[in-house]
TrEMBL record:
GO terms for biological process: methylation. One of its GO terms (molecular function) is demethylmenaquinone methyltransferase activity. InterPro entries: SAM-dependent_MTases_sf, UbiE/COQ5_MeTrFase, UbiE/COQ5_MeTrFase_CS. It holds the Pfam family Ubie_methyltran. Signal peptide: none annotated. Gene3D superfamilies: Vaccinia Virus protein VP39. The keyword S-adenosyl-L-methionine applies. This is Ubiquinone/menaquinone biosynthesis C-methyltransferase UbiE. Transmembrane segments: none annotated. PROSITE patterns: SAM_MT_UBIE (PS51608), UBIE_1 (PS01183).
């Protein structure tokens, strides 16, 4: 498989990814704002508006896979009513630790739970969630097909899955600017803020290695999702994929 532009054994990838996120956990949220110039907030809010957590006290349980420091989960419970809760599942204790502190600070610790788990084998019962999300996480998982099948397994019938991920810029002119920005500026910015240029080099490379949206939609269908669709956001910098467990 790939770790950025390097070809590495499938077993090695997860360890290398874990080093990246351990290294950047403390500065992860700040870096997201800087690198995306705040756009990740817009993309995540759009994801939450598609999730439509109920405003009433009806129970709605979200699984946020590779949820890191909890952004999508916090936004979802804040948008939903008192019955809305979320479980952040992430393989990295460092990211989860930052997320738990944020939950305390936001007063959301009773509604957002943090669980250390590998997306490829989720420690949750079949049909136990109303929705599942993964934001900017799936491309880090070595076996994406397994992770998607696991998300489908834990969803209740009718439950929806959303995947937010970097995609292919399809606007002439923007592609060149985007390339220059990602390869020339991001690693340097990463070094300045986290002391770690290599981790951000990996991030930009892994974005280029991610399958184009049509191919990712096929992966979702292969994992058993139905009504699979995707929409490009911000000129294709990001795509929002969706599917339903029937
Ligand atoms: N979803 C969060 C967000 O949007 O801010 C975090 C995204 S961060 C770019 C990617 C996350 O994927 C990291 O927290 C990393 O630990 C997690 N991750 C990588 N491999 C994983 C795996 N196999 N299972 C679960 N999480 C994983």
């Amino acid at each position: 498989t790939h770790f950025g532009f390097r070809t590495v054994p499938l077993e090695a990838k997860q360890r290398m990814v874990d080093e990246v996120f351990h290294s950047v956990a403390r500065r992860y949220d700040l870096m997201n704002d800087l690198m995306s110039m705040g756009l990740h907030r817009v993309w995540k809010d759009l994801l939450v508006s598609r999730l439509r957590p109920p405003k009433s006290d009806r129970a709605f349980r979200l699984l946020d896979v590779a949820g890191g420091t909890g952004d999508v989960s916090f936004r979802t419970v804040e948008a939903g009513g008192p019955g809305t809760s979320a479980v952040v599942a992430d393989i990295n204790g460092g990211m989860l630790g930052v997320g738990r502190e944020r939950a305390q600070g936001l007063g959301l610790a009773d509604r957002v739970e943090f669980v250390e788990a590998n997306a490829e084998s989720l420690p949750f019962a079949d049909k136990s969630f109303d929705a599942a999300t993964v934001a900017f996480g799936i491309r880090n998982v070595p076996r994406m097909d397994k992770a998607l099948a696991e998300m489908r397994r834990v969803l209740k019938p009718g439950g929806r899955c959303f995947v937010l991920e970097f995609s292919r810029v399809d606007v002439p002119g923007l592609d060149a600017i985007y390339d220059a920005y990602s390869f020339k500026l991001i690693p340097g910015m990463g070094k300045l803020v986290t002391g770690d240029a290599e981790s951000y080099q990996y991030l930009v490379e892994s974005i280029r290695k991610f399958p184009p949206p049509e191919a990712f939609a096929d992966l979702m269908r292969g994992a058993g999702f139905r009504r699979v669709a995707w929409q490009p956001l911000t000129g294709g910098i990001v795509a929002l994929h969706s599917g339903v467990r029937i």
